Amino acid sequence: MKKYFLTGLVILLPIAITIAVVGSLINFFTGPFVKAVSSSLKEINFANNGFLFLSHEQVVLYLSKLLILVCLFIFIILLGMLTRWYIVRGLLNLGDKLLHKIPIVRGVYKTTQGIIKTLFSKDKTAFKQVVLVPFPRKDMYALGLISGSAPTICSATFGAALISVLIPTTPNPTSGFLIMFKQEDLIYLDMKPEEAIKYIISCGSIVPEEKGIA
């Protein structure tokens, strides 16, 4: 019975986590507009009797989110096309400069902008290299992802070049430790980042194929 339960759990858990993450993203993007769209659908008396096992309120809510997602998708495509026009690009650059001058807002905007550009940059190198690092002490090791060079002031104060490494926690790799190491402390591995993440999420039960050390 225990074996069957664990097998079923292994199959169901990734699906449940995926649904939860996707649901959170949908709620994040549609949340600001749901109330307005739902009100409009209610005014036209759409699906007053519900649909199948869904009540009228549920049908309106789900359809509102679907319409919002479709409109957002179309808007993003159009925005990408319009930014190729010189005039529109100039207006966007002007808006960007204004946001960089507003107190409080500029801090959040610049940080978010930097993260997004890093994540979607075609030539990015951050989080592409998996390394073995001494953590939490010298005689123990953990998998980490190189995020880039440490701030110049940190390396200068330490007196040697430092490398920033993200050490994800298990089983939730979205949190972790950002630690700076000397170059000689890093052991470079011939392992894909997704393989390292799978190993971390599975608490070590999913072992990557042996490829040796780079």
User: What overall geometry do the principal axes of the alpha carbons give?
Assistant: flat
Number of domains: 3
The percentage helix is 40-55%
**Count of individual beta strands:** 5
As laid out across the biggest beta sheet, the strand order is 4-3-2-1-5
Biggest sheet overview: 5 strands, antiparallel
What is the first-to-last residue Cα distance? 43 Å
Order of helices and strands: HHHHEEHEEEH
Mean pLDDT: 81
Based on secondary structure, the structural category is alpha+beta
Number of helices: 6
Roughly what fraction of the amino acids lie in strands?
5-15%
Q: What value does the Rg take, in angstroms?
A: 24 Å
Low-pLDDT runs: none
List the SSEs and their pairings.
Layout: H1 2-43, H2 56-82, H3 86-99, H4 105-120, E1 130-134, E2 141-149, H5 152-158, E3 162-168, E4 176-182, E5 187-188, H6 193-201
Antiparallel strand pairs: 1-2, 1-5, 2-3, 3-4
Helix pairs in contact: 1-2
Q: What key attributes describe this structure?
A:
6 helices, 5 strands, alpha+beta, 214 residues, five-stranded antiparallel β-sheet
Descriptive notes:
- With 214 residues, the chain is of the alpha+beta class.
- It folds into three domains: 2-82, no CATH class; 91-124, no CATH class; 130-201, no CATH class.
- The protein has six helices and five strands.
- The protein has helices at residues 2-43, 56-82, 86-99, 105-120, 152-158, 193-201, and strands at 130-134, 141-149, 162-168, 176-182, 187-188.
- The chain has a five-stranded antiparallel beta sheet.
- Strand 3 and strand 4 (176-182) form a beta hairpin.
- Helix 1 (2-43) crosses helix 2.
- The longest helix is centred in the N-terminal third of the chain and has 42 residues, at 2-43.
- The protein starts with a helix and ends in a 13-residue tail after the last helix.
- The model has no long low-confidence stretch (mean pLDDT 81).
